[in-house]
Specification:
With 222 residues, the chain is of the alpha/beta class. Helix 3 links the parallel strand 3 and strand 4. Helix 8 crosses helix 10 and helix 8 crosses helix 11. The longest helix is centred in the last third of the chain and has 15 residues. It is globular.
């Protein structure tokens, strides 16, 4: 039997104008399995050039920085050929920042008080093509949809789900992670992931935010 090689680590670029923040992130992530810090940048301008040179898989991006902020840097990076996933990591969760980052192409929005294990998981999720959000940010996105007209089509799309799948969809809309859903429903993590994949397929969504909005729209329908 041949040797089994470990998958290549996820290359990460850290972007923050505070050296202390970058040092703290490096300390957390360098000890995490499957992650390699390949570079650091102190502002958006430097980040775009660094990404072009290093081709990382994921960029952890601050929002408020001199010369070029994180939203504009995200837009430029996502316009590059074969761009990396960009995860916004910031202390600010205002609607303008969240929506601006998502519009620019960010793969997620995490707050700087995110626990280290969740930060590591978010990086791996982004590298795998999934979106990642702090629960409070996800709830904020959902709350913005409550003022929109109810969508009968949302109810029909969720109607194709089994009772268990609707239960999981509701927990996603409430901002729960897969691990939290597994614990609450007494399921294994792989089982939750399998259910969630079916929920995405049946409801026609591609990420947790779209699912959360769909659940919210269905809840408002008569």
């Amino acid at each position: 039997m041949g040797d089994v090689t470990d998958p290549a680590p996820v290359g990460v670029v850290l972007v923050d104008d505070e050296p202390l923040i970058r040092a703290g992130l490096r300390l957390i992530l360098e000890g995490a399995p499957g992650i390699e810090i390949v570079g650091e940048a102190e502002d958006g301008e430097a980040a775009v050039k660094l990404v072009s040179d290093l081709a990382p898989a994921v960029v952890l991006m601050d929002v408020r920085m001199p010369r070029c902020d994180g939203v504009e840097a995200t837009r430029r990076i996502r316009a590059l050929p074969d761009p990396p996933a960009v995860v916004i990591l910031t202390a600010f969760e205002t609607d303008d920042f969240v929506l601006g980052a998502l519009t620019a192409g960010a793969a997620g929005f995490l707050l700087k008080h995110t626990p280290p294990a969740d930060l590591v998981a978010g990086i791996h999720q982004a590298a795998a093509g999934s979106m990642t959000f702090s629960p409070s940010v996800l709830r904020r996105l959902v709350s913005r949809a409550t003022n929109r007209p109810a969508n009968d089509g949302a109810t029909a799309r969720l109607g194709a789900l089994t009772e268990r799948e609707r239960e999981i969809a509701a927990l996603v809309a409430d901002g729960r992670t897969n691990a939290q859903i597994a614990a609450e429903l007494f399921l294994s993590l792989p089982t939750v992931k399998t259910h969630l994949a079916r929920v995405f397929e049946k409801s026609g969504v591609t990420n947790r935010v779209q699912l959360a909005l769909l659940v919210d729209q269905a809840a408002g329908a008569p």
